[in-house]
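request received
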Amino acid sequence: DADVTQTPRNRITKTGKRIMLECSQTKGHDRMYWYRQDPGLGLRLIYYSFDVKDINKGEISDGYSVSRQAQAKFSLSLESAIPNQTALYFCATSDYSGTSGSADTQYFGPGTRLTVL
Amino acid sequence: AQTVTQSQPEMSVQEAETVTLSCTYDTSESDYYLFWYKQPPSRQMILVIRQEAYKQQNATENRFSVNFQKAAKSFSLKISDSQLGDAAMYFCAYRSSQGAQKLVFGQGTRLTINP
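response:
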């Protein structure tokens, strides 16, 4: 499995604060994703990046921004946190070979639990 | 847009028995991938098994196997010889072979193993 790390693992913050969640991977994967998990809703895509110069919005990008600082690093920012952004956030990575195979599987980090008061 | 539905919010099974988790999906695509992920209390998302839509043969990984019915758009997970460590939330997920190739998740099924 990919070595995907996320920091912090848990964070409590106040409404209006700026928060950055960081993701790093050591697998050399090109593709990185940020998902949000809410109870009863599964995971939903916030942003994704196919390489350092390619960043795209997912289905719930409002209120979030991202930065792909390097192939191995992909950060998610909440410019002004609000309580309904309280959730579990996952980073995921995958490789792409152009053909079917295990390289197309997404591997997840351990998650960051964010609470906005 | 693709959707994934898991109709069983909770399931329970006796240790050593077999349990099947259901998943259906909706898509107009012919080439895609399906996955089952496990999320234990540690909250880590762990890949259990994957299936390529073009393959007719059902995927198997040790005690885990799937029943993939492409025409019915059904993708169930069978866990044989259930173990206490299998207790977790299980998510079915769909991934297109085109575009963002994002994962579309179902709502999850919480599996309890009774000793």
